[in-house]
Amino acid sequence: MKDLTLETVFWISAVLVAYVYLLYPALMWLLAKGFRRQHIINDQIRPKVTLLVSAFNERGVIGNKIENSLALDYPPEHLEIIVVSDCSDDGTDEIIGSYAARHVRLVRQNKRLGKAAGLNLGVAQSTGEIIVFSDANAIYQSDAILQLVPHFSDPSIGYVVGNAKYVETAGQTASAQSEGFYWKMETQLKHMESQFGSVVGGDGAIYAIRKELFLPLLATDINDFLNPLQIVARNYRGVYEPAAVCFEEAGESFQKEFRRKVRIISRSLNAIRREPRVILPWIQPRHWLALVSHKLLRWFAPFYLIFLIVSSGLLSNLTIYNVFLRLQLIFYAMAIAGWLFEKRTGIPKYLYLPYYFCVVNAASLLGIFRFLTGTLSPTWETIRETPPAPKADVHFAGKDS
User: Fold this and answer.
1) pTM (predicted TM-score)
2) Over 80: is that where the pLDDT of 324 sits?
């Protein structure tokens, strides 16, 4: 009876791991092919757009970001540029202020209140029908906004997510290369989810919403996940536009990516708590399937992995479970080796994915803990140093348009 219980735990865990990483992408591919949802796209519309850029101590990149924004191929009289500074103290605000004559507006928080509070302030002062949210290091392709806005000609569309591509640079870190590979898979899923129903979540680097659908945020909210959930709960759809491209650099180290993912996962779980209607399958069944499969089940994958190795270890007297145990031990040994190499000489390429896989799942575990204990910080730190912002003519690691 004991072995039967352990075998049940093992196979349930194995199926969940396989579903999250293999079966769900295959299922979504089939659903996107067979049950694609169409919507109206009118590329002649030119609504008033506010480009809202979030910044905290971004002296190294904010000038390039503003120049890039001013050069966008969108009618200047229909484009408002606002940069929200969360009490920056490194000269960022002075750089933004130097563009005032070119109609770039600085909205400054005089206390460090966090990104969510800054966005509340920025949206309240905006005049656009459509708000495009962006980060200070996200460099837009010239037609990015032109690619986003046509979807809003369909009244059922509440938000549009662009295609953030990770820049490939010489001497790229192992973390950046692993994140770039991970992001390619993510963008494929976004595209398929969008075709089937709604893309799950936004992207802080490039996503747009109808201003009328923005709801004020709490200090610990993650806007690019909560906003889309709130919009879906009001019976709108969200779509992914791969031709609306921006470029940014991946994290410089696994440690920085780890901290970023912990923050994202803890706040994203909090966003679902804030908008619980989205986990009711009858609200929007297609979005529900994607939300549960792509996000919730994946965030809880560390538990399936723990159950998997413990149950296979306890059943290792049986040949099949002994084989599974050995494969898992080899995989985790590769991840540990990657961690040791990173601290010394740099990670060999064949160790990138095992190590990154474990980093992501460890971040999920800590993110869940922080969500459950309520230890969510309203402020954030820039995860990069202050390199020059990436240009739009570099090679990139993302899904081709």
Assistant:
1) 0.87
2) yes
Q: What is the 3-state secondary structure (H, E, C) of the chain?
A: CHHHHHHHHHHHHHHHHHHHHHHHHHHHHHHHHHCCCCCCCCCCCCCCEEEEEEECCCCCCHHHHHHHHHCCCCCHHHEEEEEEECCCCCCHHHHHHCCHHHCEEEEECCCCCCHHHHHHHHHHCCCCCEEEEEECCCEECCCHHHHHHHHHHCCCEEEEEEEEEEECCCCCCHHHHHHHHHHHHHHHHHHHHHHHCCCCCCCCCCEEEEHHHCCCCCCCCCHHHHHHHHHHHCCCEEEEEEEEEEEECCCCCHHHHHHHHHHHHHHHHHHHHHCHHHHCCCCCHHHHHHHHHHHHHHHCHHHHHHHHHHHHHHCCCCHHHHHHHHHHHHHHHHHHHHHHHHHHCCCCHHHHHHHHHHHHHHHHHHHHHHHHHCCCCCCCCCCCCCCCCCCCCCCEECCCC
Q: Would you say the C-alpha torsion 188, 305, 295, 340 has a positive or negative sign?
A: negative
159-208 per-position pLDDT tens digit: 999 999 877 654 455 555 555 567 778 889 999 999 999 999 999 999 99
Report the b/e string of 236-247 with b at 16+ CB within 10 A. bbbbbbbebbbb
CATH number of this structure's domain 49-253: 3.90.550.10
Quickly tell me which residue has 């075998």 as its tokens.
7
Q: Which residues pair with 27 in a beta bridge?
A: none
Instruction: Please give the Cα distance from 157 to 61 (Å, whole number).
Output: 32
Q: Is the pLDDT score of 66 beyond 80?
A: yes
In angstroms, rounded to a whole number, what is the distance separating the alpha carbons of residues 163 and 247?
Answer: 9
Residue 250: the pLDDT is 64
Average pLDDT, the chain: 88
Q: Per-domain residue ranges for the chain?
A: 49-253
Question: Do 242 and 191 meet the contact criterion of CB atoms below 8 Å apart?
Answer: yes
Strand partners, 107: 84
pLDDT of residue 176: 55
The bridge status of strand 396-397 relative to strand 157-167 is antiparallel
Q: How far is Cα 144 from Cα 252, in angstroms, rounded to an integer?
A: 26
Assigned token pair, 101: 């004559």
